[in-house]
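Record filed below.
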Amino acid sequence: MPEKVSAVAFKSRMPFLMVSPPSLPCLRRADDGTVLAFDFGLKRIGVAIGETLLGRANALATIEAETNEARFTAITRLIQEWQPTLLVVGLPLALDGTVHGMTARCRRFANQLQGRFGLPVALTDERLTSAAADAELREAGLDWRRRKGKVDALAAQHILQDYFDAAA
């Protein structure tokens, strides 16, 4: 089950990738390895993990921190522990595919990840992943209090699994 985490930041530089599902097959096999995915939110950040060779995603953690510094400390700890070769950030879009307020915030978060950790970052459509995660947890019999602590990590799992499935 997902857990709460925290952690210390470091900086380096590497190219930022803007990837959407139609262009995913272009990913180089040199990117094989561990992937961390993020469901960015203003209160919580869900994190999932997967391996490109297996193409399977799993919920990992929910980061609940009020400050950016605390959030990036937690992310740093996860990156140091799991040594990913790629980071994936869910890009929220309206149902009709248009951008909205959270779209710009997620792009900024993705740019911050790339700038701080020097890892390639892919943005991928996250439409309805939180709704799917909440429905899955509701079907599993969790009340709203228990769902609240798990929905973000499960949404990140859906984001990463969609990313893997589109690349297959």
Remarks:
- The first strand starts at residue 34 and ends at 39.
- The chain has one domain: 21-167.
- Confidence is low (pLDDT under 50) at residues 1-30.
- The CA atoms of residues 20 and 60 lie 23 Å apart.
